[in-house]
Inverse folding.
């Protein structure tokens, strides 16, 4: 049965596409490079874990080992997911007929057809869903096994009891996470501090009085003593994380799967006047070393 698509606007202008394409969040975690993408994974993928207990010993002839190197693979299962919709295309005709007639020029920013507008909105919506699932998925049917629940269940993750973020306390909260980062990774080039949007906003505001920032005009790139601070839309409020991006993986069948969306005009087969859309992709998330991850939450 077709969804009841409701169009309240009578606007036929050159920004008509914005009626249907809301400002959905894209997958911040992937788009901002805050996670490593492992493509071409079929079924389960494996993330490497390595421990080395080697010790110094006095020199002697022969070969006596003084420790052990243990390599194991951590399995991350990928699952197949889909998003399907069906709706009556007639409700969209009035809004898009002027665009289709070419009355507003060759705009590359506003979709010129119903199909393009629908596809764009689906891709944006998919980005929002994937970003949320990467971190918060519960692992039940139709859901990723998200990273944050995995962190909570892992006793090796460095857990910090945080506070509700304010402009006054945000720098102290980020400093607490920074100080808990293991020394062996503190200088790594892929080390980041990932924060929820409210923490990022408070951190920016806290720097207005700082002589290095001074003016509130213009956006500012964030870091904490040289470690990039990245705002991630999918993180719950008051969350602060520190980790190496190489330590956390997003596994998928193909990189192109993230852009694989199909739209079908059903008039071609059953004259129903409906449009069907479908997105299918495989995905899973995981990490290798819990002891390298710092997680502060309320």
């Amino acid at each position: 049965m077709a969804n009841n698509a409701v169009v309240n606007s009578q606007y036929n202008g050159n920004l008509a596409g914005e009626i249907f394409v809301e400002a959905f969040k894209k997958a911040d975690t992937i788009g901002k490079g805050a996670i490593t993408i492992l493509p071409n994974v079929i079924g389960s993928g494996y993330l490497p874990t390595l421990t080395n207990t080697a010790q110094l010993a006095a020199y002697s002839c022969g070969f006596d080992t003084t420790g052990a190197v243990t390599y194991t693979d951590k399995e991350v299962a990928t699952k197949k997911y889909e998003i399907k919709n069906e709706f009556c295309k007639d409700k969209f005709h009035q809004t898009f007929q002027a665009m289709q007639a070419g009355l507003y020029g060759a705009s590359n920013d506003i979709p010129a057809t119903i199909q393009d507008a629908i596809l764009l909105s689906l891709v944006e919506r998919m980005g929002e869903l994937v970003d949320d699932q990467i971190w918060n998925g519960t692992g039940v049917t139709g859901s990723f096994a998200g990273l944050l629940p995995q962190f909570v269940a892992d006793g090796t993750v460095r857990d910090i009891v945080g506070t509700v973020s304010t402009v006054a306390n945000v720098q102290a909260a980020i400093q607490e996470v920074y100080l808990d980062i293991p020394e062996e990774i503190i200088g790594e080039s892929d080390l980041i501090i990932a924060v929820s949007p409210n923490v990022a906003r408070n951190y920016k505001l806290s720097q207005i009085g700082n002589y290095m920032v001074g003016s509130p005009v213009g956006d500012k790139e964030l870091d904490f003593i040289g470690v990039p601070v990245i705002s991630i839309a999918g993180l719950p409020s008051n969350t602060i994380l520190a980790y190496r991006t190489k330590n956390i993986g997003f596994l998928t069948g193909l990189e192109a799967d993230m852009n694989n969306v199909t739209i079908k005009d059903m008039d071609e087969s059953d004259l129903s006047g409906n449009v069907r859309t479908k997105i299918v992709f495989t995905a899973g998330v995981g990490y290798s070393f819990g002891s390298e991850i710092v997680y502060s939450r309320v």
The CA atoms of residues 137 and 146 lie 4 Å apart. The first strand starts at residue 36 and ends at 38. DSSP finds seven helices and 13 strands in the chain.
